[in-house]
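Q: Given only this backbone (227 positions), what sequence would you predict?
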């Protein structure tokens, strides 16, 4: 049984009993038993554990976890503090610096954002080592749809940052008029720099302030400084 230790437990309790999730659980038991899967088993739900339902101000939708050792830890786009910053995250940091003037940090651990209400949610929460999208169409998409549907039901406004086609496909679930959807190209180098100039970080904070909420402190503390 999954225990998230916050208000997500009650909201998702029914989801964890559905046939698709039980089939997904059986698939994952086999996958983790036969080979290397990322993130580590106890980190799968870190995004939901670190950012409770009522705390969510911003949702960043990713694709699936990083496929290299020592990177994925359950938060979309984030890596462990000792890992090299991946290219997509490096581009996020470049846009962040250009948009709001934040210094580019010396690591890619985004827990600082999660603790402020930025839900860093991948579309698919697990992956085989070295094989992108290897756990696609196993049930995770239904689960993360359910998460977004519950967030859509929230009365308080939320900003949804949808970067790339996979994330943008989730946009159809966000129908409540109080929320803000911001879409851009994926920050991957493959997108040819079309992510740059989206100004999503400043637009997010402008919206939060307009709604009477505290803006996000996007500046990532340097490693060793509480990151």
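A: Predicted residues:
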């Amino acid at each position: 049984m999954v225990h998230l230790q916050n208000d997500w437990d009650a909201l998702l309790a029914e989801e964890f009993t559905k046939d698709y999730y039980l089939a997904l659980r059986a698939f994952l038991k086999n996958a983790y038993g036969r080979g290397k899967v990322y993130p580590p088993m106890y980190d799968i739900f870190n995004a939901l554990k670190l950012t409770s339902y009522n705390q969510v101000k911003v949702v960043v939708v990713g694709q699936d976890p990083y496929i290299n050792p020592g990177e994925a830890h359950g938060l979309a786009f984030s890596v462990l503090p000792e890992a090299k910053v991946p290219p997509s995250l490096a581009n996020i940091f470049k846009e962040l610096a250009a948009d709001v003037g934040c210094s580019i940090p010396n690591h890619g651990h985004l827990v600082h954002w999660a603790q402020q209400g930025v839900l860093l949610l991948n579309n698919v929460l697990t992956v085989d080592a070295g094989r992108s999208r290897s756990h696609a169409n196993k049930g995770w998409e239904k689960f993360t749809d359910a998460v977004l549907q519950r967030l859509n039901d929230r009365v308080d406004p939320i900003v949804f940052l949808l970067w790339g086609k996979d994330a943008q496909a989730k946009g159809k679930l966000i129908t409540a008029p109080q929320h803000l959807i911001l879409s851009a190209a994926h920050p991957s180098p493959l997108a040819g720099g079309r992510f740059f100039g989206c100004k999503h970080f400043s637009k997010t904070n402008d919206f939060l302030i307009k709604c009477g909420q505290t803006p996000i402190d996007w500046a990532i503390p340097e490693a060793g400084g509480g990151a």
